[in-house]
Amino acid sequence: MESLLEFKNVSYSYPDGQDDHPVLKDTSYSFEKGKVYAIVGSSGSGKTTTLALASGLDSPQEGKILYKQEDISQIGLTKYRKEKMTIVFQSYNLIYYMNALDNVMLALDIAHKKIKNKKEYCLQILDQLGISKDMALRDVRKLSGGQQQRVAIARAIVKDTDLILADEPTGNLDEDNALEVMKLFIELAHQENKCVIIVSHSLTLASMCDQQLKIKNEKLIDYFQ
């Protein structure tokens, strides 16, 4: 299957005192649609850096990040982030002076998505994720952590991008909510043919994914290699 996102000979390091600390060195990996990938590892292993590169929030010092065979720097990093991918954060990153519905509708506006009956469309997506109309019109601070994360996932769904990235999306949730959120990501990949890449420290949650990856010797490789 043709890759959706590809790391091609990517190298990245960050300054550590007087030296550079390598995170990735000449690493290559291809991610396909219809699959959920988990990048696992301890704190400081390079998981979040890898996600930042995949999302265009940072750029490799060598090599390329390709989206549908095109260098994301040529697409334009701002355009890539707005239109080609979406990211779900551990801290939800909701706008707290807006209700859940407004948060989701704003995601459409930022991505320049033209949808008829936008309000009804967003309410339908929220309802599918267990957020009723009453909840959708509440101050988001009055929603539980699991509900807030579902709103964040709704923002990802309404943009209808092929690529969804998630940075420790279950880190602030209890076990039951974490499992439900993982099931949502799996449904998006398998039923909607999305590519979902999740950073996690939990091997239990990673085992639910189609592919488990780790960073070893500055390479992104299959976990069981």
Counting DSSP E segments of at least 2 residues, the number of strands comes to 10
- Overall shape: it is globular
Going by helix content, strand content and strand pairing, the class is: alpha/beta
Most strands sheet: 6 strands, mixed
Written account of the structure:
The protein is an alpha/beta fold. It contains nine helices and ten strands. A six-stranded mixed sheet has the order 6-7-8-3-9-10, with helices on both faces. A four-stranded antiparallel sheet has the order 2-1-4-5. The mean pLDDT is 91.
Can you summarize this structure?
Helix content is 37%, strand content 30%. The chain is of the alpha/beta class.
Topology:
Layout: E1 3-16, E2 19-32, E3 36-40, H1 47-55, E4 62-67, E5 70-71, H2 72-75, H3 77-84, E6 85-89, H4 100-110, H5 118-128, H6 133-136, H7 145-159, E7 163-167, H8 175-192, E8 195-200, H9 203-206, E9 211-216, E10 219-222
Parallel strand pairs: 3-8, 3-9, 6-7, 7-8
Antiparallel strand pairs: 1-2, 1-4, 4-5, 9-10
Helix pairs in contact: 4-7, 5-7, 7-8
Features:
alpha/beta, Rossmann fold, four-stranded antiparallel sheet
